[in-house]
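Sample entry (342 residues):
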Amino acid sequence: MKKVAVSILGATGSVGQRFVELLSNHPWFQIVSLAASDRSAGKKYADVVNWLMPSPLSKEIGEMEINLCEPGIPGNIAFSALDSSVAGDIEAAFAHEGYTVISNARNHRMHPSVPLLIPEINNDHLDMVKQYTTGQIVTNPNCSTIGLCLALKPLYDAFGIESVHVVTMQAISGAGYPGVASLDVIDNVIPYIKGEEEKLETEPLKILGKLVDGRIQPADFSVSAQCNRVPVIDGHMECVSIKLKNKASPEDLIHAWRTFSGIPQKLQLPSAPQYPIHYLEGDAFPQPRLHRNIDKGMAVTIGRLRPCPLFDYKFTLLSHNTIRGAAGGAILCAELMHICKK
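Predicted structure, serialized as C-alpha cells:
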C-alpha cells in the first residue's frame, strides 16, 4: 500500500512532537513536511526542537527543513498542532487550498459544518465534510472531552442520560511546553484552566448528537464541569457523577463499558485500541502512572463505580491527554477517513 503524504503544522510544540513520534513509523502515513513559525522556518528540525518524547528523534526527521505554515507545502493531509491563537486562519487557508486538515485546536470545533470526531462514537458525522468544495476540516475534541465521551457513549445508548457532573484533574502536559510554571504547580492544584469548563459542557452534546439533514441535533442532557490542573505529567483524571434516564445496575454499566467497540475496532485501524474502554476492579484504580499507556495510550480506563447519593452513579476515568486526547486521536480520525475513501 502506497503511503499517504502528510504534513504537521506546529511541529515543534509538545503536541506537534507527539504527532512526529506517532507518525514516524506509521504503516499508512509518511511525514513529508514539518511546518512551524517563521522563527524556525528554514532550519533543521533537530536544531530547533526541544525534543520531549520518550523515544529518540530519528535522524531522517531531524534533518528535515522546517517550512512556514502556509499552503503549498507537500502533504495531502495536514495535522494541525497549532495553538488556538493562530490556528483558525491558518487551518482555513489550508482547507481552501484543498488540504484535509485534521485539527487539535478549538477554533473550528463548534462550526456547524465541521465534524467534532471521535471515530468510535460519531463516524457518521463525517458526512458533514461533504459540504466543502475543495479541502476540509475535521476537528479532534478537547482532551478531557474525549475521555468523558468514550465513557458516556455506551451508557447514553443503553440507558439514556439526564445529567452529568464532572471534576477533572488535568496533567501539566495539557498546557503545552513550557506550560505551567513549576513554582505555580508543584505542591499545588490550580482550580482554573481557561476555557476548559465551557468545552466540557458543550462539546459532548455535539459529539453525542444526531446528524439530521446535514446538521447536528445536540444530545439532550446537561453537563456541569469543574477543571483543575494538577502536578502530573501525562494523564487526565475525571471524577464523574451521572443521572440516567432508565434504571440500571452497576453490573449493567460495567457490561456496557466492557463490550463497547466501534468502527475503528471493526476495521482494525492501526492506531485503534483493541478495547476502547477498560474497566478495572479495585478501590484505588485507575491511576495515571500505572494506567495512562494502556492499549497504546488510546484507551480510556474506568474504575470506582459506585452509587451516588445525588445522582445515580459516580466513577473515575483516566485518559492519556497527548495520545488519545490529542495526536493519537487525530491520527485515528485520519485513518478512518482514509479507509472510508476506498
